[in-house]
Amino acid sequence: MVQKTRWIGGHDERIRRVTRWFAPARFGFFYHWGLFTGGGNSSNGSSAPVLCHASISEFEAAAPAPDVVARNLVATVQRVGAKYITFTVVHSCDGWAVMYPTAVPGFLRVTTRDYVGALLAEGARKGVKIILYMPGGMGHWDTPGGPWVAENLRTPEGYAAGLTALVQELVARYGAQIGGFWLDGLNPLLSDLPALMHRLLPDAVVLVNNRTRFNSPEVDVSTTEFLSHLPEPLYNRPGGLLKPIDWIDGMLPPMRDFNEDIPTCNEWWHGAPPYSWEFILPFAYRQGTGNYQRDPLFWIREMLCSLGMRGQWNYAMGLGPMLDGTVPPEFEPMLAAMEAFMSWAGESLADTTGGEGSGLVPGWCNDGAFCPVTVSRKNPAVHYLHVTEAPTTSVLRVQPNFRPIRSVEDLRTGHPIPFTQNGALEMTPASWADVAAYGAAVFRVTLE
């Protein structure tokens, strides 16, 4: 007798909200942009200048008009086939500056121009969803250069009231243009905030950084910023998330589903002071340090692992844009590589889920091959095999989880690939050249 699965923690509603747009989108960007763009950090312990732009007036004199910044931010996303943006409305490392003219009292640095509204409007025009970032707790308000907020926001109770008012104001101003909210931590006094967000915007997705335990039923998606250890291959971030990270609020390894993986290629914002190696190495914070610049294909392989090694995960690259919203030139090669890859491989990522538990087993295969797998959500018989490390032989062997294979074809060329199935799926492409040329060879594998 088959029993119906019972879920806890608002799981059915979580599935509804996440699958409405966020899960099918899969690939996004995380933009930190504000007074710290170009350099600086107002958080405690920074050895850099406090902020690149010392005041709102100085910042607004240097930055282009909001609609120009918004067009550039969205254009980068569309260029590489990403589907959404997370944008910092306010950040503790940015002097708690708010990027729209808020009327909520206590924020001492508030723009007179509406950068948030311009980005939301541009996203709506271009079909790019916008998620709004905000800190889930008060911190760094009394660091050098501060105080950064007024007295009413400096206590946990005061900040909880202030952030709640900010969310209400954002929804009143922009409504359903807001695709979701991204909370960097969650003050216990704000435990009801995700529920409020859903009451105000029923279809919004709510993400909380590092909250892998889902101990708030209204949290839809956890995120993984730090790794517990260095993975193998180095770009396989899910392989570095297999142990608890006790120093982050007892963070457990992320579950198969409902996670967003968030690496950064330039310390989150343009010109940010680099983390010390004493910080990076123990916490495996930046397994990609320097690799994005040295190897433009590293980013592609990293994304494929985050989207193909577990289940319903998303991937958002933390790339700090310049003040005009364009990408720093040192990252142009990796953007060009992603654009070339997604021009023919986008089908294998959009509206898919990862390969854990699917008809093909993702991960290590024969003779050094490594193969993330994605599965079409619309037709689960269709799997996509991404070979990010080619075997040292001409033959690739993949475990098919006891599922019969109907056909295999090269996704880029459309050519059928010879294969046999005697237990493992064995296939012999003409070459593995796409691995070196694009970051991966991709095959559409259709199951019976």
Could you characterize the architecture of this molecule?
The protein is an alpha/beta fold. It has eleven helices and 18 strands. The strands form four sheets. The chain has an eight-stranded parallel barrel with strand order 1-2-3-4-5-6-7-8, surrounded by six helices. A five-stranded antiparallel β-sheet has the order 9-12-13-18-15. It has a three-stranded antiparallel β-sheet with strand order 14-17-16, with no helix packed on it.
Please summarize what this structure is.
The protein is an alpha/beta fold and 448 residues long. 26% of the residues lie in helices and 19% in strands.
List the helices and strands and how they pair.
Elements: H1 11-25, E1 27-31, H2 56-62, H3 66-79, E2 84-88, H4 115-126, E3 129-135, H5 156-174, E4 178-184, H6 193-200, E5 205-209, E6 221-224, E7 259-261, H7 277-283, H8 291-294, H9 298-308, E8 313-318, H10 332-345, E9 352-354, E10 363-364, E11 370-371, E12 373-376, E13 382-387, E14 396-398, E15 405-410, E16 419-422, E17 424-427, H11 433-438, E18 441-447
Parallel strand pairs: 1-2, 1-8, 2-3, 3-4, 4-5, 5-6, 6-7, 7-8
Antiparallel strand pairs: 9-12, 10-11, 12-13, 13-18, 14-17, 15-18, 16-17
Helix pairs in contact: 3-4
Strand content: 15-25%
Distance between the termini: 26 Å
Strands of the biggest beta sheet: in what spatial order?
1-2-3-4-5-6-7-8
Q: From the 3D structure, determine the CATH topology of the largest domain.
A: TIM Barrel
Proportion of residues in helical segments: 25-40%
Query: What does the main sheet amount to?
Result: 8 strands, parallel, barrel
The residue-averaged pLDDT reads 93
The overall strand count is 18
CATH superfamily of the largest domain: Glycosidases
